[in-house]
Specification:
Number of domains: 1
Number of strands: 10
Helix content: 25-40%
CATH class: Alpha Beta
Distance between the termini: 42 Å
Order of helices and strands: HEHEEEEHEHEHEHHHHEHEH
Radius of gyration: 19 Å
Strand content: 15-25%
Number of helices: 11
Length: about 325
């Protein structure tokens, strides 16, 4: 098959798949989120600092400029990396709604870049956070798992601190988006920081213990197998994850306002299994959801649809035309 024919086939399949998803509104019986308490907010607090960021312009487009922004974290509980993100900022004067995106792998992936370009071309600023690198082989305790996800929240909140001081950013119109591991990150930061007014959470779920035992992702399966070979029983692993990983999407879900969330759940997902996605959806309060007729990776065929639906969601929430 020639390349052109292959592209046409993929596009046709994407169109057909776009007709095979089901879109449901938020549960009308939902009454609202739980109030964030002082103890939780203290756990995710950090010393105040004046952010002195290094900013490098890496690309200029007709409508927006892409900057690389980097600054040290006020608190590191996982490693000593700087906070780094790509900032797609509108060129015209004014304050604009801004979406924070958490990518899937360690580096910024093409999906995150695709969403960023799509949003920026439609009048949004976008901050794509670079993930701190983590290797499962280096994780030797459940405490380190918790430190990693707590650091995600600390980093995300400091990115918000920086953004609200930029003159191009509407501090009252901040949103979050992430898919897969990025969706897990987006959900926990949204739960903690009330400045994020709405969220798109895709192919994510919880609890972390349930994901660890049900995911078919090779890296996770191999890691769990290694623990078993070391003589660590499944009951001990499950208990440790349930007790010590407090920065868990399901555990924090009650602080997220379901009326301001759009979720994507794949029917045949075996990386973050469908039942884990459903558990998070129920824990948040049954928000608006798009159910995809796909697996975790084949959901990429829905990407054009997801970009369009997510853009419409944010426009609706921020009352943009």
């Amino acid at each position: 098959m020639k390349f052109g024919q292959l592209v046409k086939s993929i596009l046709l399949l994407s169109v057909l798949l776009g007709c095979s998803c089901a879109h449901y509104a938020c549960d009308r019986a939902y009454v609202g989120p739980k109030t964030r308490n002082a103890e939780m907010l203290d756990y995710y607090s950090y010393p105040e600092q004046t952010i002195e960021a290094e900013i490098e312009t890496v690309c200029e487009k007709k409508r927006y400029v892409i900057e690389c922004v980097e600054f040290p974290s006020a608190l590191n509980v996982f490693d000593t990396s700087n906070i780094k993100f790509d900032f797609y900022v509108q060129r015209q004067e004014g304050r604009f709604p801004t979406i924070i995106i958490w990518p899937i792998p360690d580096e910024v992936d093409f999906c995150a870049k695709g969403f960023a370009r799509h949003f920026a071309a439609n009048g949004f600023n976008v901050a794509v956070i670079h993930n701190r690198k983590v290797d499962l082989d280096d994780i030797v305790s459940v405490e380190q798992v918790e430190d990693y996800f707590r650091q995600t929240v600390l980093d995300g909140r400091q990115v918000v601190d920086y953004l609200v001081e930029r003159e191009q950013v509407d501090a009252n119109a901040l949103g979050a988006l992430g898919f897969s591991l990025g969706g897990i990150r987006a959900s926990v930061v949204s739960a903690v920081d009330e400045r994020l007014k709405c969220s798109v959470i895709g192919l994510a779920g919880g609890s972390m213990a349930e994901i660890a035992f049900t995911s078919k992702l090779s890296g996770v399966r191999d890691y769990m197998k290694e623990l078993a070979e070391m003589g660590v029983s499944p009951d001990v692993i499950r208990a440790e994850l349930s007790e010590k990983v407090v920065t868990d999407p399901v555990a924090l879900a009650e602080y997220v306002d379901a009326r301001d969330v759009l979720m994507y759940i794949a029917a045949f997902d075996n990386v973050i299994p469908n039942q884990c996605g459903d558990r998070l959806w129920q824990a948040i309060g049954k928000p608006e959801v798009v159910r995809l007729f796909s697996g975790h990776f084949t959901s990429l065929l829905y990407l054009p649809c997801a970009e369009r639906e997510s853009l419409n969601f944010f426009k609706r929430k921020f009352q943009m035309r």
